[in-house]
Amino acid sequence: MSTTPTREKRPPARHVVARVDEIAPGASKLVHVEGRDIAVFNVAGEFMAIANRCPHEGADLCKGKLTSLFESDEPGVVKMSRHGELVRCPWHGWEFDLRSGKSWCDPARTRVKSYDVAVEHGARLVEGTYRAEVFKISVDDEYVVLEL
Question: Is the pLDDT score of 50 beyond 70?
């Protein structure tokens, strides 16, 4: 019987990084969360996030152009799919899948970290477990009065 202690997995911390209207469709925003630079993209109203640094030579992926997947089974016939779900590195054109972080140049060895992103109504974010102590204040004949 093993006596190795098991670590309890903590739920992921949630961070508000932008309002939905701050990132237009087809645009990106660089955010800093817990010491990481993360590029958040709006792909036709769906938000996706990857680590901002290209593993090839370190370019900012948030400055890359969104592109689609182009495939061909025969010369002269090209199919385009997954509109805007890939980002092209601004320096050398390496492409990364925004859903998985996988590189389309060297998928077996190269990828960037991808992150889960959700859009939530602001009222859900305001309600939390932490509360500050509240004090009653009133105005009495031009003086602000704090009650303890």
Answer: yes
